[in-house]
């Protein structure tokens, strides 16, 4: 989708805040731990290339979810290692060689398919993924991991790393986390030839289990300044949200009591009211369930009234405001603020999804 530059709706990204957040987290990790910035899904909506350029000198590498995201970074002249976290089918392995990417290899079956297809794996660098209890991708048995590593080496693959992913590092109940950690620890320590880079920590693990990092971390949400647990666990230190979402009033009108607003006529003004319209809607990722939520105008909360349309949202203003008045949807205005976590709570989802759903139509300004 082309981004809509000629309307007052935009996401403003504070790249310095991202750098600072990385530094803050790294300061709380043991020395010598490698730090990778996770910039999948367009850096959680912040712009993968801009974020990668900003932080490349600070980090040891990047993680993305698929080959196309990695190629985008290489085409933008990002030089540091890039680990593709998802499964890349053997047919696409040549791209890893062309672009110098590190692949995740997550099953013996994958290797057998590659052999069957005659895929040339020689010269590839990979990390082995262990499923320690997430139930998603990864090898579940120590013996399979051992076989996979040996067979990959035979094929001329450099097995640089081995890693796992926790399902509950952001939760108060530690039981599943401990089980996964034990499983991974036992597996790794019993390997005849353990790859040099061992990693298990996403943001939540890096924040609340800083003692259990192996020798690298994969930092996603926290570098963008949000708490990966929402409000379940408290951040042990301050991080700064890097994204602000703003728009502006493009129409302001006074309506008499009983005026219907929006599709379906779901809202009727109770008295004489000022209704403002913003050029943002669900096609921008400002979803329909934002009806009844608030935005900030002039440091005051103003309710979203009527349905959110594809391209427009209507709000109730306390008084008349001039056209062009700034409206904050995520961020600070005066003494008030609305966070992506607040938006997520209203939607019954997580702050990750709120950021990722901001569509390409919203220009990112740095
Ligand atoms: C997305 C992802 C991360 C980063 O997760 P955050 O919670 O955003 O830090 C780390 N590892 C894997 C395998 C992931 O898919």
UniProtKB/TrEMBL annotation:
The keyword NADP does not apply. One of its GO terms (molecular function) is alanine racemase activity. GO terms for cellular component: cytosol. Its cofactor is pyridoxal 5'-phosphate. The keyword Isomerase applies. InterPro entries: Ala_racemase (IPR000821), Ala_racemase/Decarboxylase_C (IPR009006), Ala_racemase_C (IPR011079), Ala_racemase_N (IPR001608), Ala_racemase_pyridoxalP-BS (IPR020622), PLP-binding_barrel (IPR029066). PANTHER family: ALANINE RACEMASE (PTHR30511), ALANINE RACEMASE, CATABOLIC-RELATED (PTHR30511:SF0). Belongs to the alanine racemase family. Catalyzes the interconversion of L-alanine and D-alanine. May also act on other amino acids. This is Alanine racemase. It comes from Streptococcus pluranimalium.
């Amino acid at each position: 989708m082309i981004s809509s530059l000629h309307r007052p709706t935009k996401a403003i990204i504070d790249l310095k805040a991202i750098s600072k957040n990385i530094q803050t987290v790294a300061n709380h990790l043991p020395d010598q731990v490698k730090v990778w910035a996770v910039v999948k899904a367009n850096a959680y909506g912040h712009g993968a290339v801009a974020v990668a350029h900003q932080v490349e000198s600070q980090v040891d590498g990047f993680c993305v979810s698929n080959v196309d995201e990695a190629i985008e970074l290489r085409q933008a002249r990002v030089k540091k290692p890039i680990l593709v976290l998802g499964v890349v089918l053997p047919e696409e392995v040549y791209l890893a060689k062309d672009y110098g990417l590190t692949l995740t290899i997550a099953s013996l079956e994958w290797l057998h398919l590659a052999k069957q297809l005659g895929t040339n794996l020689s010269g590839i660098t990979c990390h082995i993924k262990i499923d320690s209890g997430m139930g998603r991708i990864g090898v579940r048995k120590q013996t399979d991991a051992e076989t996979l590593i040996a067979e990959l080496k035979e094929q001329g693959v450099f097995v640089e790393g081995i890693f796992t992913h926790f399902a509950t590092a952001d939760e108060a109940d530690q039981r599943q986390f401990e089980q996964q950690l034990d499983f991974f620890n036992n597996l790794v320590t019993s390997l005849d030839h353990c790859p040099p880079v061992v990693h298990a920590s996403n943001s939540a693990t890096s924040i609340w289990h800083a003692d259990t990092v192996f020798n690298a971390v994969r930092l996603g949400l926290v570098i963008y300044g949000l708490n990966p647990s929402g409000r379940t666990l408290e951040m042990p230190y301050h991080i700064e949200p890097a994204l602000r979402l703003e728009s502006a009033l493009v129409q302001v009108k006074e309506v008499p009591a009983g005026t219907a607003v929006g599709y379906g006529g779901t809202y009727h003004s109770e008295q004489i009211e000022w209704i403002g319209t913003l050029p943002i809607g669900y096609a921008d990722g400002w979803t329909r369930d934002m009806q009844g939520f608030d935005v900030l105008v002039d440091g005051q909360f103003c309710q979203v009234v009527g349905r959110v349309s594809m391209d427009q949202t209507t709000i109730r203003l306390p008084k008349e405001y001039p056209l062009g008045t700034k409206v904050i949807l995520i961020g600070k205005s005066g003494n008030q603020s609305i966070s992506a976590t607040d938006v997520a709570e209203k939607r019954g989802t997580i702050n990750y999804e709120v950021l990722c759903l901001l569509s390409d139509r919203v220009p990112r300004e740095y």
